[in-house]
């Protein structure tokens, strides 16, 4: 029985090169058209400029303890750089709603991004554009980069620098709310403890006065002293011990009050900016040469696949006709 002919092509690398050479005219036309089309399309794309800020997080050490406590031996200094935990906290602050809202309002991004406020989902579109053009990332050196893409190079730098400045504003605002609440609580307890100590002191003074009067009464002074001690001694010693304890509590609360007040009043920066944003001179997007190369190669590959498929179909049809 006659062996059936093999349908289609089985290209080796040499066969493929030969096939490409045979189709060189078609592929050349496709490549030229793709290159010209990609260049024309890239010219219609709005150029975007990238500006960036590089900063390190500040230490998470307590400002009050670092400044109030003598011989403070904490692992971190208030003047030092933060670690990975502080860097991640900084990223969360950068992604926070207060910063986004202030940037959107200050630069009127709704209008700048050509978003219709009467559209179906204007805020969703706005936030998508914001997240697309404004990015934050943790670098390999534990610093944080703010990257802003915009069609206006001056605005891209201004937005990046403003976001960097807003970090301290938002951070201090969040911490102040907590610190003020803590200050109110500890200050109230401090005042209450002071009043209690004043009551104890008045009671002690009254007992002392009674003992003095009893000792000075007529009769044997020694017997009067013994009688006074027997009657008021235990109460007197109890009051003295209570006052000593209350003095310790008042001292501790006074330190806590000073600590809370310092935390509530301080406005230290929470980041160290090592590189501020400047208006970029060259656009970051689009890269016309890259677009042309990628588009041309993609078009040539697609055209080659189409030609191979067409020739395979033709070969199959020819074999079927012969049968």
Question: What's the short story on this structure?
Answer:
The chain has helices at residues 13-22, 24-44, 63-68, 84-94, 97-106, 109-112, 122-133, 153-216, 221-265, 288-322; strands spanning 49-57, 134-138, 144-150, 271-275. By secondary structure, the chain is of the alpha+beta class.
Helix content: 55-70%
How many helix segments? 10
User: Which CATH class of the largest domain applies here?
Assistant: Alpha Beta
Overall pLDDT metric: 80
Broad structural category: alpha+beta
What is the domain total for the residues? 2
The largest sheet, given as strand count, sense and whether it forms a barrel, is:
4 strands, antiparallel
The name of the CATH topology of the largest domain is Bacterial polysaccharide co-polymerase-like
How would you spell out the order of helices and strands?
Answer: HHEHHHHHEEHHEH
Strand composition percent: 5-15%
Number of strands: 4
Overall geometry comes to rod-shaped
Q: In what order do the strands lie side by side in the largest sheet?
A: 2-3-1-4
Unreliable stretches: 1-8
If classified by CATH, what would the architecture of the largest domain be? 2-Layer Sandwich
Return Rg in Å: 40 Å
Oligomer: single chain
What is the terminal separation in angstroms? 14 Å
Structure write-up:
Helices cover 67% and strands 8% of the residues. The chain has 323 residues and is an alpha+beta fold. The protein folds into two domains: 14-47 and 284-299, no CATH class; 48-282, 2-Layer Sandwich (Bacterial polysaccharide co-polymerase-like). A four-stranded antiparallel β-sheet has the order 2-3-1-4. Helix 2 (24-44) runs antiparallel to helix 10 and helix 8 (153-216) packs antiparallel against helix 9. The longest helix has 64 residues, at 153-216. The protein is rod-shaped. It starts with 12 loop residues before the first helix and ends with a helix. Residues 1-8 have low confidence and may be disordered.
